[in-house]
Each structure stands twice: as structure tokens, then as C-alpha cells.
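for the writeup, i need someone to sanity check this before i put it in the appendix. the sequnce is what the collaborator sent (i think, or maybe the updated version? ugh). structure was predicted straight from it, no edits. if anything looks off just tell me and ill rerun, i have time this weekend
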Amino acid sequence: MNTEISQTKICKKCGRLLPIEKFSLIRGKFYNPYYLNECKECEYKRQRDNLAKKNKIEFSDDLEILIERQYKEINSERILDTSKLKVILLGTDETFVKLMDYKDTWLSNYGRVIRFSNGKYNLLQGGYDSNGSLRYSLRKNVFYDGKWIYKSVPLYAAKAVVEEFIVNPDKANNIYIWHSGHDKENYYYRNLYPLNKEQYKVVGNHFNRTGDDSEEFIIKVINDIRFKLDDWSRRAMKPTMCGIGYHGSENVDCKSESYLKWHDMLSRCYNAKFHERQPQYRECSVCEEWLNYCNFKLWYDQNKVSDMPYDLDKDIVFKGNKVYSPETCCFVPHAINTLFLDRKADRGDYPIGVYYDNDKRKYRAAMSFMGKQIKLGWFDTAELAFNRYKEYKEDFIKDMAEQYKDAIPYKVYEAMMNWKIEIDD
């Protein structure tokens, strides 16, 4: 009887008389073994409750929401007309947009890819890596060994959809993508959230405990300072440049080349005094992502691939474009950039490339290049003068494209080879 009693124990937590093996055996300070006073079941429940309490996310009632969920505005010239293609759309809003750095490739906001090859458009199947992530093998225009070439690279669907369709407030650190419902086969852009490592961990733990990953919860996580990086501060989010641009980090070198380019870009778009001198920039703007200097710097460092003097251009790839953004901008040699100045203030009411000579009472065609004027002759009408200018300028642009082919991205080369001068430019 005594042996039987010694093999049982009463749990101080639940009050049950249980076999001794239902209690954890541990060693004391002096290595003397003893059994805990609560059973393993109660011990486990207590540990779970403590962990849940520790991991419970509670937000302050006055949490400041500085970052909202935003989606990118897509340039209409990038959208593929699928009406004549044999493609069944996954939703009425499925849109395929051209990937500017990839060869004849379009990505949809559902994560699907279409590529044009051998005279037809093909919907690619893609494949999955060891982690179950969908990816495609595509040809990307990259700067390699001193020139621009096409190279086969993997394109991950989730990352690409975020890049093309979602405004990412911190592109350098928000590299972890949360899929709504933790469904990693769902690539619809409204169900993807770019997060930093800590934010991703918090959302994942909360979802595992509660099944909740609502947008409201994720937005609060994104804005909670507890889950920001150490170099983040409210002050770094304060618009200090033209009342709209902000640093995004405490560690910013205001004398760096990238910062000066960012400063000049914002000034062109939002500085009233600059507009007095250059009124053509009054309708220009900077995309939401690039209002954060750190986001612009990341793009700058990835795309400024040569030590040559390069200009930041917004309207060669898309003629007439008014928005500075990663999708519309490029770096080009200064000589190329000067080719696309319209000089409206100098020519008055005449077509581009046309001037009226009062002494000869004729219309002169001429173009400027690197500060020098190339005279193309005198004509009886402005239209004839313009036609001469148009023919010469378009050929000149093509010649420059060929000359700098290895020094410019293919999207710039292609735009220059297809450039058309219009009389109302």
C-alpha cells in the first residue's frame, strides 16, 4: 500500500490524484531530484498561457497611422491589350503590365506572366522552388562587364507583384511578403503585404494564434514603432523637402550624389521659385515611393551602374511623361538627355525646330546639340522647315542610340529607335 501511495501525487493546481509519471521530474539547486507540484498538463497550460500573454499584441489607442495601404498608378502605355489574346482572365480586374527591364514580358496583378516570342503571346507556366514559391525564368536587361546585355534570371511572382503594383514604404527592409491567410499560392496584389522581418514575425505569430491577419491589424503593425528598425524615427518621416519629401531614416548623408539628385528632382516638381524659371515642370510630380529618400537611394544605387556623368530622365522611355518613378525613369548620358529638350521658351509660336528669320523672311530649320546649333536650311513655310527638322532629328536620335547602345538600358535604346517628332511637340 505504501508503494502504491508513493507512486501517486496530488496536483496543487487541478487537485487530481495522478500517477507520479504525470509530473515533471527536475533537479534542484544541489542536483537533488524532485517532482513539481503541478501535473504536466497544468504545467503545459500555464506555459501556453504565459506565452500567449507575452505575445499578445495590444496597440495604443492613440497609435499614429503614418503609413496607409496604397497601390501604384500604372502608366497606360505599359498595359497589355488582352482582348484579342486567348487568355482567360482570373478576374475582371486582372491587368498585365510591361516589365520595363525584361525582354517582351508582362506581369499581371495576379502573378501571371505573358511573354511575346516567335510572333505570339504566350502565358508562361512558371515553376516552384524548394520553398514552394512561384518563379519564372526570364531574360532581364542587366549591366554586365561594362555594357548592357540580356541575362536569364529567376523572377519570383510575389516579389514582382509587390514591386509593380504596391507602394512599398520601406523597400530596403520590407523584403518579407505576407500572403493573406498565409496562402502562399495566392499572388493577387491586394492579398500581399511587404513587411520587415520583425513585422512579418509578429503577423505570423498573431495569425497562428488567432487566425486574424486582417488589413486593419497589419496596418497597425506596420505603424507601431515597436516593430520598426533602430534607425527609424517619427522625425525621419517629417516632410522636410519642399513640404513633401522625407528622409525615411536617421542615417542620411545629405552631401551624397544620390541625395543631391533626389533634392533636385523634388525641387523641379514642387519648388515654386524653380517653376518661375522652368514653368514646364509645374505639372510634374514624384511617385509616392520616392518621396522617401531611402527608397530613391535604393533605386539609384541599383541603376547608377557607371562612373560616367548621367542625368536622371523621366520622359524618354515614355514620351510626355510627367511622373518621376522607378517604372518611368532611367539614367542616360548627358549628351542623350539634351536631345529631348523642347526649348519652347526660345522658339515662340513656331513648331519645334523652326525659327523665323526676319532678314531673309524665311523659316529656318535648326537643332541644338550640346550647346551648338546645327543649321538645316531656310524654307518658305513653317511646315516645310519642320519636316526637314523632323527628318534630321529622328535620324540623329537613332544614330545616337546606336553610338551609346552599350551604355544605355535597352528600354532607352528602343524608345530612341522608335522616337517620333510631332509638330505640336
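The mean pLDDT is 92. The first strand starts at residue 8 and ends at 10.
thx in advance!!
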